[in-house]
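for the record, two folds in this file. i put them one after another cuz i was lazy. first one right below, seq on top, structure tokens after. the second one comes after a little note so u can tell where it starts
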Amino acid sequence: MTAPALDVLFVNPGGRQQVYQDLSKNLAAVESPIWVGLLAEHARRRGLRVDVLDANAAGLGPAAAAQAAADHDALLTVVVVYGHNPNASTHTMPAASDLCSEIKAGDPDQTVLLLGGHVAALPERTCREEVADFTCNGEGPITIAELVEALKAGGGRKELEKVRGLVWHDEDGHLRNNAAAPIVTDLENEMPGMAWDLLPMEAYRAHNWHCFGGIERQPYAAIYTTLGCPFQCTFCCIQAPFKLGEAAAGLDPRRNSYRRFSPQNIVRQIDRLVVDYGVHNIKIADELFVLDKKHVEAICDGLIDLGHDLNIWAYARVDTCNDGDLLVKMRASGVRWLAIGIESASEQVRSDVDKGYRPERLVAAIDGVRQRGIHVLGNYIFGLPEDDLSTMRETLDFAKELNTEFANFFSAMAYPGSALYRQAQERNWPLPETWSGYSQHSRDCLPLPTNHITAGEVLAFRDAAFQEYFDRPEYAELVARTFGPETVHDIERMFSQPLPRDNAAEIVGAGT
């Protein structure tokens, strides 16, 4: 028998249309799949022959992606279910599921491993429900390397039992959930960055707001400067891939999923993106970039020394945005946008989910960021457990008062792997019947009900709030003054884009 051409093919599944509806055509970003790139680089450093198929960037449906995967002739096909952010992993599942089914239908002997944030949150359920040979209960890199070794050794029960992090059915049909693999702690030597050369860099596109003011949206890239997160917000599922691997690595699972790439590493990566691929639009995808001041300062100093004209955006918390000197340095290095989690204006709602910022602190922090020339994207969540129509109105009115350069309005979702998901199961709250229902923009989106109002009321309020925020003279004036009149027309085209919903309730006065 001829040996496979590759050891591992990493596949980023598609499904943009299902997740974003018509927003996928020209508004939503097409992001470089960070974990695909990281996993491919880790495997390559282990001496494995690897390649990447980005079905999302190529716009391939399940059948076409399955055929492309078969053409690569790999010993192991790894379908990676990590999204633009941790929560996006779940709504990537429908595309991943369809792809696995097509791969196995075309070639039942093809070995498929399914991994990612959603999979790590529900590894046994995913193994039972999906047409894949294996799932992974953790981060993935070490599991992949050990699985390839096991397959090369024959792939029998004895070999598979040694693969840390593997979930599988033995020859008797029993579901086996192996001991967790440790998370990768030596990033500099084992996983120092992404396999950029294996990705279709010309295909990636920035968010529309990231390039307000007539900036070309392509090329574009997303990177991590850290992995994991030191916080445990109840509505976030970021810890799902790391929770078992921390203990396996002998680390404190309360904090140690959080790992840093060296500042020199990040500066080298960004320099390569600019010089080799012409990328100036960059997303720093860390859940919290502005956390370790020395780390951020060193990255900024390195980028300033490079002298590239960069357009960077990153996430921040309110309590990390009060250092004026650091903000000045960030702007000089190319950081033009910060996405700040405001979540809710109601103190009762925020305290219930461990977000205790007072409104005056929020206003002061955001004013400080904007005074240093950095635009603010405010992130808000409707439908947290203590929300009702009045508290959501309080949040929307506060958002309008802040009048940031852009805003995201989300409905609270009980993403698998989050504390809210466990709470929803314990209380028998209705959850989406399909994984696509966890997408904020899908037709079948179904957020959580709160202790006071229904899921349909939350969703209807969210959609009305989006229209109300962006269709205001005050906002149009801000955009025209900051980015120019043509961007105002772009905004108008954006909020006129229909977003059909199946589960929204009728609420009189929801958007007034």
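(here's the note) second protein begins now
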Amino acid sequence: MIPDYLRHMETTSNLRRVALHDIHVALGAKMVPFAGFEMPVQYKGLMEEHHCVRNHAGVFDVSHMGEFRIRGERALDLLQQVTSNDVSKLFDGKVQYSCLPNETGGIVDDLLVYRISATEYYLVVNASNIRKDWEWISRFNASYGCEMTDESDSTSLLAVQGPDAIQVLQKLTDMDLASMEYYSFRIGTLGGHDNVLISATGYTGAGGFEVYVPNALAEDIWKKIFTAGASHGIQPIGLGARDTLRMEMGFCLYGNDIDDTTSPIEAGLGWITRFTKDFTNSAFLKAQKEAGVSRKLVGFEMVDKGIPRHGYDIVDAQGTGIGVVTSGTQSPTLGKAIGMGYVPTALANPGTELLVSIRGKALRATVTKIPFISR
């Protein structure tokens, strides 16, 4: 079972490799092109890896993600301009989910904003948008004069996710991980290495941490994590399970559920779109929120047998397209097919019946609240 966003893979032979590439190959990972990188999609199998993270702990290598460092007296002003959330609410050691609105009502990218200090921030962006985001932020920085550093090529990112993740990592650090609130971070010693950023964040809804290290330390940290996690049955986890895990939580995937044409209001991201400040295209988005949108991103469960896929039509009783599936999969936890897609606002209420066109048949589905499973 290959997730939607890996079904149409790049054919270019000029793929980049993460620092741990050879380790993944040695572990028998199935490597696929994704966002310009050669990445592990699965090791033992998607179902086993998915359940391992939900029930125990697993490690994802997501070093293809991008990392930017922003320094300067006006760093806050720059980020207030380019991001939708209110960065002034952050304090040292706090993380914020946000997006970069464009000037036409859509989203340049979604991202994480880390406050290192009042004059230093750390941004984590999607792999496929590294250059695009850099150019977008740089364009606005011309007015703010901040020092921008792209650390993407020199940084490895390991996501240790699952209910046992805290017990695994605690063996490697004297930082009190249990006291860390969701969406907070600390910088300290991990596995004998100083200045490691550990963040209580993730893309699975299973709990856990994300660990940022220089490429030169990635292999040693990887091996120490697996030694510490051996008694917990820790496993390496590929992008396939990452997709099914995030789908069960209803987390948006850039390029599928959100993109340059989807508004954060339509996508249910009003909670990260704060009108306590002015930001790029904020007047338009505020007016859209006040007037209401004509379509909304919803979650749905299939009633009839069939798996909805990205790009499939959502239709009315006459077979006319009224919406589109943005993400879909067979949920390993629920044992049923689930999906997300944009539908007219009048059809967005939980319990509403939809029809999804799958292999020429209009199959029944029901709008449901997301997340599909409890955190």
